Amino acid sequence: MIIIENLRKTYRMGDVEVNALDGITLNIAKGEFLGIMGASGSGKTTLLHMLGLLDEPTSGRITIDDVDVGRLNDYEKTQFRLYKLGYVFQDYALVPDLTVMENVSLPAMLRVDRTEEQTHAGSFEVLQKIGLCDRRDHLPRELSGGQQQRVSIARAMVNKPDILFADEPCANLDSENSRLVLDLFKEINEEFHQTIVMVSHEDWHKDYFHRIIRLKDGKIIRDGTNGSSAH
Amino acid sequence: MGKKELKVAFLLALRSLQRGSRSSVILTILIIGMCFTNMIFLPSMFNGIGQSITKQVVDYEVGNVLVSPKSGDQYVADSGATLDLINGMPGVERATPHFTKGATLKYRQRVLGVSVRAISPSDEKLISPLYTKMVAGSYLGEADTGEVIIGRPVAGDASVRQEDEFQASLGGVRVGDSITIDYGNGYVKDYRVKGIYYTGWSQADSAVYVTSTDMALVDPKALDNADYITVKAKPGYSETFIKNELLAYGVGGNGKVQTTADLLSKSMGRALQSFAIINMVSLVVSIIITTVVLFIVITIKTISSRKQIGILKAIGVDKEVIMHNYGFQVIILGILGIILGIILTLVLAAYMAYHPIVTPEWSATLYITPMDLLVNSVILFIAAIVAGYVPAYQISREDIQTAMRT
Ligand SMILES: Nc1ncnc2c1ncn2[C@@H]1O[C@H](COP(=O)(O)OP(=O)(O)OP(=O)(O)O)[C@@H](O)[C@H]1O
Ligand SMILES: [Mg+2]
């Protein structure tokens, strides 16, 4: 359902050119839990941002559900992100002045196809899923890092996106909280057949992924289902 | 921009103000409120001064419309007939003749030059509140002769030594005392002081009043010759209406017809111009301060939440929502600031109504109409919106990558 063809991203800084992505070709199937791994600076974030329509490639094409996303205008991209994509960022990125409930509801509130009741019920449901229903009226700063990250996952899930993107969601968490978050992803993936694309640094995360691609200098150096790519 | 998007923008704005820095919100509202007050204070004080001068001039000098001698004439021609004519016109409360003579007052060792105003006491009651301003004794009766009422500054204070006096006086005349008026044409006459008044209008307070009947004994010309005729309009009739009416009836042939506004605009024209400049400066300064403060407040807000904005856009929040979020914050701050400003202004106005700045010519209170409040609110509100939307627009157009990577 995601088709990536010969994707390139070149940053030019003065005379120096950096090929952050250097000809990536890749298909991601529906329901897949894909891990993107690789050393720092290998282009993981850049790739994720391209797929999430947060940045534009220098060349190449991305097709999501038969939509050539490169042809969408700014507003269409925003709508595409709102209706089809979900994001979890490394540093949670919750709105500090909104409560947990308000943070989670925010993307749903913007959808014209949702009534207020549906928004509320949907937000409640995902909060239950992450086990933070009782903290719904708290502000993000009153929660631990792990809890905040779970709220941010709830926010990404509330619109039931086709694809969930996560860029090192566990980077700021201890191993216990990391496991909680990863278990949550696993559950979502299995229960809703949710496509998840996740960037990770940590080797032990790979047990969770169905498939892992490894990047180096903007190129895929390994692509395999879990087990075959492990060592 | 749909309803849902506006709702989300408003929610973000409201929460940011509710849960963000309390002190910055309060400070911003305070500054807008004070700018509002500053904007309206000077103009309304000048307005109040103008109003008080106008009222005094109407009450003690010219009424609403003044008929004065044509240039070259010493008196209004055909005073008696003219007076009767005017008094018969619709909309005229009363027209009264005034006859003034310069004279010298003598009391014990003191001598004082004053103008003696001859009035018809009962007619005067209809056009001037002088009869309510008696501080001692009583007002003139219609046919009184040999009686005079004098202003308190003329009467003076016996406990103040002559060389310490702020204004020359007769040094402490009391009701019942006898003073001598020397009219300078060889006519010298003793008068009993019937009353002492104080109006607060220096021209009137430094004069003395006798009846026309008495003046006719001094100068027979006073009977049918008026220095000027003051015309008081009935409530609901404008000065201009009366003036035009008088002109239509041909009063213009006997004297010069002017409204109080005509007279004041001539005498105060220059002062009004300077007022207008001062008003404009205070207005512009207030608008600039408000604009700059709001611009800085919103710019700081947007810059310190650039990453936040990038994230919001990443999760599908449209740039218009981001922009209106800050827009709404400014609107809310602006409205609260203006409300505070209106309250401050009204409190100030109430205070000044009880403690006016009083001088012999005018007393300064704040003269504020609902229209003034409205106009100033709208001006300040527009300034606030411009100041807020400029940085909000800029930040909302920034691309996600730049915003998120900072
Ligand atoms: N805006 C930019 N301008 C210039 N170069 C950039 C920019 N963004 C990324 N790069 C470069 O592109 C390359 C890939 O960056 P990217 O952030 O995708 O790496 P990453 O794999 O996510 O690394 P990390 O694990 O440290 O997050 C790096 O060499 C980086 O310096
Ligand atoms: Mg990265």
Descriptive report:
The complex is a heterodimer of chains A (231) and B (406). Chain A is α/β, with parallel strands linked by helices and 231 residues long. In chain A, 32% of the residues lie in helices and 29% in strands. In chain A, the strands form 2 sheets. In chain A, strands 6-7-8-3-9-10 form a 6-stranded mixed β-sheet. Chain A has a 4-stranded antiparallel β-sheet with strand order 2-1-4-5, covered by helices on one side. Chain B is an alpha+beta fold and 406 residues long. Chain B is elongated and about 100 Å long. In chain B, a hairpin with a 4-residue loop joins strand 11 and strand 12 (363-364). The longest helix of chain B has 45 residues, at 260-304. In chain B, helix 1 packs across helix 11 (319-354). Chain B folds into 2 domains: 3-56 and 269-405, no CATH class; 70-254, no CATH class. Chain A binds chain B through residues 49, 52, 54-55, 74-75, 78-79, 81-83, 85-87, 89, 93, 95-98, 102, 106-107, 109-112, 139, 155-156, 159, and chain B through 2, 4-5, 7-8, 11-12, 15-16, 18-20, 307-308, 311-319, 321, 400-401, 404. Bound molecules: adenosine-5'-triphosphate and magnesium ion (MG). Magnesium ion is lined by residues 44-45 of chain A.
